[in-house]
Amino acid sequence: MTVFVTIVAGLIILIMSLHFSFPYLMHDLQYIFTILKIRSKRLKYKENHYTVLGCFLDRVKTEPEKTFIVFEGKKYSYLDADKQSNKAARALEMHARLKGGDTAALLLGNEPHFVWIWLGLAKLGCVSAMLNYNIRSKSLLHCLLCCEVKVLIAAAELKDAVEEILPTLKEQNIAVFILGAECDTVGVETLSDKIDQASEEPLSPDLWSNVTMGSPAIYIFTSGTTGLPKAALVSQYKLWAATFFPAVSGVNCRDVIYVTLPLYHSSGLIIGLSGAIERGTTIVLKRKFSASQFWEDCRKYNVTVMLYIGEIMRYICNTPKTENDRDHKLRLAIGNGIRPDVWREFVNRFGCIAIKEFYAATDGNMSFVNYVGKIGAVGRVNFYHRKVFPYALIKYDIARDEPVRDSNGLCIEVPKGETGLFVSKITNLAPFDGYANNPHQTEKKRLWNVFQKDDQYLNSGDLLRIDQDNFIYFQDRVGDTFRWKGENVATNEVSDILTMIDLIKEANVYGVQVPGHEGRIGMAAVILKEGKQFDCSKMFSHVATYLPAYARPCFVRIQNSLELTGTFKQIKVKLAQEGFNPTLIQDPLYFLDQRQMAYIMMTQELYDSIVSGNMRL
Ligand SMILES: *[C@@H]1O[C@H](CO)[C@@H](O)[C@H](O)[C@H]1NC(C)=O
Ligand SMILES: *[C@@H]1O[C@H](CO)[C@@H](O)[C@H](O)[C@H]1NC(C)=O
Ligand SMILES: CC(=O)N[C@H]1CO[C@H](CO)[C@@H](O)[C@@H]1O
Fold first, then answer.
1. What phi, psi does 518 have (nearest 5°)?
2. CB neighbour list of residue 280: distance below 8 Å, 6 or more residues apart
3. Pocket, ligand 1, Cβ cutoff 6 A
């Protein structure tokens, strides 16, 4: 008896002391257990070449009547989706003559047809290139050409964007379809009528029998650190890896997932749509995010899980307080980029909602998730991860825009608590698929000789910090990309567009911080051409024509010369630190005024109202 009591008491003391010295031990073990479970599933899928399409077809078999998508009040079951995608596949097979291995590009907003066409293409053994529907002209063309697209399928309302590049598309033999029933443009075919007429009978599995885990599944475009968007290749294997994210985060088949993020992004497409298929859940699909409709929708559709990017959570917190703020079933929010203050406010106001903040990149090979719910962190170091997927934070020289190297030419790991560049080892388990037709950019992402001669790491371009308790925090993006409103803005791409206008000789684009705002907003330092004046309305209409709203420089600073580094890189850090305060900057400064549809002269009054948050950006 006494022996028993002693053992029990000893065990209790052991557990208590473990709990105090390792307060997150249970969380860590639970997480590792989930990961191991999923890993064995993934390996089984890998061996059998079981793709996300295969998983979808199994859902159709086991729960045909289950609601898959709710869109604008209409419900579509898994069986409906199957039939609709059969029709889309048949129409594309017959009229676009697509066959296994071909790539088709989707230039579509969030709507059920996006899903039917994506699944339909998979049923033909084809690859989908997911275009950002905000991009135009040169960038759009570049995206289509770099992944050797055979067919472009565009929404009817994007016809103008397509017509602008039509001559080149024809030269390149790219067939163009508009998702509408009528179109009088020569060289553009309609698709909706053809889908309507096609049979809904299942297609032969032979059509996708060549697809293996190594086959490309989709292309997702990322704004690179230089120049035009890059097509990140997502293989079937990698698609699975990210598709398990909702499973890791605790989503189950009874959940209803609210998806407002664009389906051309990995979050909306892979974590939302593909993740829903893996879990067998229902998704409520929205064309766009609307803060005012958010809770109403959540109540109407019994939403239990939402996907977010940082700004979305802030917009929800900015809605007026109501008495029924806690009247909803939302229990889980999965996303990326929520600020600590917004996080606190969100849970204080709307109740106990678990927030699973994660860190991942479409073109990366490593991801973290903050499974403990520690406010502000993007993830947590644990021994399993470190062992299987080696990574490190290394010293980085921001001004020179390169890692610091020691006398042997190797990189230096930063101590805990310090910010460093996140690099992850490229291995068979964590491969780097690279970018389509872009060996130069693919090579640029690789970092050699990091800790040993000839080793190979992936340069994330992100600065992270790990604290004493092993939580990982996102700090910033290095180099030439900044984030605004949840979108990456490639500064060189914006510069290219700015210098297309006849009054600008050179442009240096960078992001500046504005108090109370997540990320950085675009600013450009420009040199005017000899004898040219800054034309406020012409400049406005130029950027409004060629750039999506989030990428338009909000501030323009006119300089006489642009400072360069020794390696002829533009100096951005200093300019970004100088910001847009007219009392500190002697150069002429302009502000992009949406209401006046022009750039206007920056004044102290304007500056004050922007900084105080009275002027909305
Ligand atoms: C599968 O690959 C073989 C060999 O490359 C090819 O002959 C065949 O046409 C492909 N089948 C499909 C459906 O793409
Ligand atoms: C939401 O849940 C309630 C109560 O469980 C149920 O009565 C209602 O039908 C559900 N609504 C939808 C759209 O599923
Ligand atoms: C972000 C991402 O895709 N990370 C993946 C890197 O590769 C490993 C192994 O394939 C995956 O487990 C990660 O999810």
1. -70, 145
2. 59, 62, 63, 66, 253
3. 99-101, 125, 206-207, 210
Domain 381-477 has CATH 2.30.38.10: yes
Distances (CA, A) of 420 to 173, 178, 465: 46, 47, 6
Question: Ligand 1 centroid to 169 CA: how many Å?
Answer: 27
**463 beta partners:** 421, 476
What pLDDT digit, counting tens, does each position of 326-372 carry?
999 999 999 988 888 889 999 999 999 999 999 887 777 678 888 88
- Angstrom distances, CA of residue 225 to CA of 463, 475, 482, 510, 512: 14, 17, 9, 12, 17
CATH 3.40.718.10 fits 51-57+74-238, yes or no: no
Residue 557, Cβ density class (10 Å: 0-12 exposed, 13-18 middle, ≥19 buried):
buried
- CATH 3.40.50.980 in the chain: give the residue spans: 51-57+74-238, 243-363
pLDDT digits (tens, 9 = 90+) for 90-124: 999 999 999 999 999 999 999 999 999 999 999 99
Distance CA 30, CA 571 (A): 46
CA distance 436 to 447: 19
Residues with CB under 6 Å of ligand 3 are 238, 241-242, 360, 364-367, 429-430
| Cα-only R_g, the chain | 25
Identify the DSSP state of 110. Answer: S
Number of the ligand closest to the Cα of 205: 1
Report helix, strand or coil for 520.
coil
The alpha carbon of 302 and the centre of ligand 2 are apart by a number of angstroms equal to 6
Residues in the chain: 617
Low-confidence ranges of the chain (pLDDT < 70): 1, 16-21, 223-227, 310, 365, 398-401, 479-480, 564-570
> What pLDDT digit, counting tens, does each position of 416-460 carry?
999 899 999 888 777 787 788 788 778 888 888 999 999 999 888
**Could you count the other beta carbons within 10 Å of the beta carbon of residue 23?**
11
